[in-house]
Amino acid sequence: MTAPATAFDPALPWRxxxxxxxxxxxFGALVYSFANRKLSFLKSKTLVSVVESLADxxxxxxxxxxxxxxxxxxxxxxxxxxxxxxxxMIEVRT
Amino acid sequence: xxxxxxxRPPAPERPVGGRLIDQFEYGLDAPICLTWELTYACNLACxxxxxxxxxxxxxxxxxxxxxxxxxxxxRMQVFYVNVGGGExxxxxxxxxxxxxxxxxxxxxxxxxxxVKLDRTRxxxxxxxxxxxxxxxxxxxxxxxxxxxxxxxxxxTAIRALENLAEAGMKDFKVSVVVTRENxxxxxxxxxxxDSFGAQLRITRLRPSGRGADVWDQLHPTQAQQRDLYEWxxxxxxxxxxxxxxxxxxxxxxxxxxxxxxxxxxxxxxxxPVGDVYACPFAIHENFLAGNVRDEGGFQRVWQSSALFADxxxxxxxxxxxxCAHFDACRGGCMAAKFFTGLPLDGPDPECVxxxxxxxxxARDLELLPPRSSVDHSHTGPVRGQPTLLGVPSIPARICDxxxxxxxxxx
Lengths: 94, 410
What we know:
The complex is a heterodimer of chains A (94) and B (410). Helix content of chain A is 31%, strand content 23%.
């Protein structure tokens, strides 16, 4: 296995990938990539607001702060975002 | 309509957080995976057809009605549908509806026996993004396949696979229903599929439709189920299953995918006349939630039907909830229980812990298992009819087949 093309760097600016649609659900949301036809789940409403507001902030870290994710939980959110980056649900803004 | 389900206490509040599988039990705002059977018409007469297909239903959704369903699926953000039948490609507007769906952000994965997949269509599909094709094959050899699907059907499927491969189609699937007769061919299926650069998909035989007539004869033995489970653990990452073998998880280790009955929770079926059933294997009035032609359309059926609300409350009672393996198999397949005459809160007829066999033996034989009143099977002999149930009788004189034969004065 080779390393993913871009490892997730929370200091970079991110956004929901342009080919990805987000469908709200009672538990959070379902995200679907029209590019790779993968389906993923956002398991909390906070994670949904993080993904949706990535584009409004200078970095993923800043997004977590703005969405009120407590410091103790940030590690888990960074991991969730890294998973989403790996499946191309979120992408770096250029 | 909901009396079929065992009484359950009022649904508790949906939990916050936790495992996804527990969330799915409470249902979603729109299905993840929706099966849409476009027609009951089929050129074949497979012995185990889950939808008892053969003849077209005159009430079939029109092109405009089918387009309206697609519009609604787009609004509900149902990102793809599994299209089947019958044989969907015999609908004259099939290729139009395919393009229409793709143009409205609804991806299509369709199942076909390959009858219409000539070189031209294969080339067209290879050039279309966002479409998946599954060719049905129920034997890795013509002998095993044609006994169930009919003489010549293996050759038709192989020709379609060749055409797709030659056209450069990517990621097409070979879709196999595992039976007692082909369970020993899993490695052969894998090799055959690999030779076309395709992907193997295997699913479970259900006693649904004409499958009820052959289930005793065709469903895998306990020993075959064990072998299948071991095979899936070894090969599961590269083989699709539609998550249909979750009842095997009670052997020990959970299989990849969703280990839960998704009926009415994350999946459902729209049939050719627009009826919405809890799952593709449950075409029976007891699992009929509504019709897309009703006021409010599909969305209202999905979100408000009493039947689906009932299916979305977790099972808390019944024999299975006391079993140590309940969390692994969740009681198995609702349709398999129903069409073998077993209670829905009891074990699956193929329960790998053996409780299914006990339950089958304890059935009241006076009570016949329920049968669907929806049957579009061909009424006369079909070319290349399957021989599983014996050689079809050939009429002695052609006029014996005339609808007027035997009438006085004709």
